[in-house]
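FW: tagging you since you asked about this chain on Friday. Here's the raw sequence from the shared folder, copied in full. Didn't touch anything.
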Amino acid sequence: MADRKKLTAELKKHFGFDTFKGNQEQIMENLIDGNDTFVLMPTGGGKSLCYQLPSLMMEGTAIVISPLIALMKNQVDAMRNYSEEDGVAHFLNSSLSRPAIEQVKEDMRQGKTRLLYVAPESLNKPENVEFLRTVKISFYAIDEAHCISEWGHDFRPEYSNIRPTIDTIGRRPFIALTATATPKVQHDIQKNLGILDAKVFKSSFNRPNLYYEVRPKTRDVDKDIIRYIKSMEGKSGIIYCLSRKKVEELAQTLQVNNIKALAYHAGMDSATRSANQDAFLLEDVDVIVATIAFGMGIDKPDVRYVIHYDIPKSLEGYYQETGRAGRDGGEGQCITFYSRKDLDKLHKFIQGKPVAEQEIGKQLLRETAGYAESSVCRRKSLLHYFGETYESDNCGNCDNCIHPKKRINATDELLDVIEVVIAIKEKFKAEHIVSILTGEETTDVKGYRHDKLDLFGALKDKDPAFVNAVVSQGVIAGYLDRDIENYGLIKVTAKGRQFILAPEPFTVVEDQKFDENEEIEMHGGTSAIDPTLYSILRDMRKKVASRHKLPPYVIFQDPSLEAMATNYPITIEELQNIPGVGAGKAKRYGQEFVDVIRRHVEENEIERPLDMKVRSVADKSKSKISLIQGIDRRVSLEAIAEGKHIDLLDLITEVESIVYSGMKINIDYFIDEYMDEEHKEDILDYFINESETDDIEVAQEELGDEYTEEEIRLIRIKFLSEMGN
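HL: got it, structure written out here
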């Protein structure tokens, strides 16, 4: 048995701590006694120490299998700081030169090295396997062990070869560690490593200091983020994006808006990546914009906010990434921007993969979307996902609990759901159950003859989103179960069967509807539109349009009026910062609008939001200038589009944004060559004499199918430029 007094003394000697956190002591005792150990501990709980201290106390070298070079470097540096001997910890990976690899091996032969970090690919190399067979190994630590499971959020096929390789090297005790694992993933890890008998140490996944919020991803998401970061001035934050391109773009946007930010993604060269990571750790920059490659094992305790620019692919990924905030127990704000369009993009990424992988990916996305759209306590939803019960309905530290929605009695609806699940023999997912109850005759419903069930259409007067909320919240309440291993099939629990016999009151809150075109006032979020001012501005636009004999949309589009009624510009200079209002439009039509806004602000004693002009990256303005220059030189729009590697419709969109901001552009040379004269006159006549809106779909309906979208949009550009600018 491990000596507890000695453990505590060694903890103080090597790491300077007087006491262990949580169940660290029991974990270390189990490992030192030579037993396989499985550790489920949230980020910030002190997982690394669970193998670092035993490695210093046990004879031989501990092999730590870790997925990222950056993580290894960070942890090796940390271990060397605790020791007088640099050779105490090493990493072995593709970044090392041949002499450096020889130095690592020599230190191990001499018994200096207590910790060796290796990537699974390096572990599997025949020359490394042969070498490791010649040295004494104390134990194997598998960090980020969720990478083993296909249901884990960061599955890596090379992790599945760990056990066979270790059997070749020589069996020693295992310690597998992860910050995120559902019961399914936990079982996968133990089964794959052959440690089903391991003692499991599971800490609570609850991080009370973390505030969770999901915001709609609007047109002004960059502006929302900049405003938020400036409100957290001097504090460290991480922003996660799904694509490398978006990481680069957003980092540049933050930089030109005087925010100290750097990018980090796997496509950068390792020297730049390391330099950017070090700059963040040393607080030379406040913000890192990154893909999920950043943050695993990074020991920075005072990250005060984590922003998800894009919704993550799984709740496990979300939990681990948000877990990098507030590791010191202090403030940690977790803000996620969510849009159904982003979800659709993620679904497209899954297509083309093997069917089983697609099904897993879709199920993980369903769970993520359900979390984002739910009005239930975020903490309760998250902990339930990880197999933990959170008793309270209000944690007081998430957007849904700070701004609770009214609860609706849904006892009868839950009874209907349970009865349908039983009738279809617990073999279908939530969507299918909702379709049956709302009377939707989908292919599957008809194919399985479920349209013949007595309860088909029983809730046809209810919104499908409401019925879906009954199913989801019935799962959280324990009446139903979602069988993750079987792609989310809904089952009835013993509690659910008891509910049929003796129903008890059951209430739900309706899920949120996310509209990226709508500004919603949220905790720490953007201001809502001022409806009174918006109405005044619409009336004024109508009068100005009538005076100029133009349709109102030519003066200012609706989104521009919405932005005016949100930000209250009171000078011509401020008006030019409003989306869709350039210098030309501001000077031509703006004075009356800013006068009205100023009066409204003074009369109602309105405190205006922080004035902010979000500067765009130089490349974008260069692109705009080159486009205008190309048109001035009468270059074909098709040729310009080809040069920019975009299609004609995308280029037309760019030209429209320039024209809508008030700039005059002459594309007659292209229209004359591209279009039939009769078509040109018909469309122009429609915009001059008939149109009440600039909506292309309305125009298409009025004009007929013989007119293409490109033709209508080209003439709309001509009309707006000549008549409105």
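FW: The two ends are 84 Å apart (CA to CA).
HL: agreed, and Residues 516-527 have pLDDT under 50 and may be disordered.
FW: great, closing this out.
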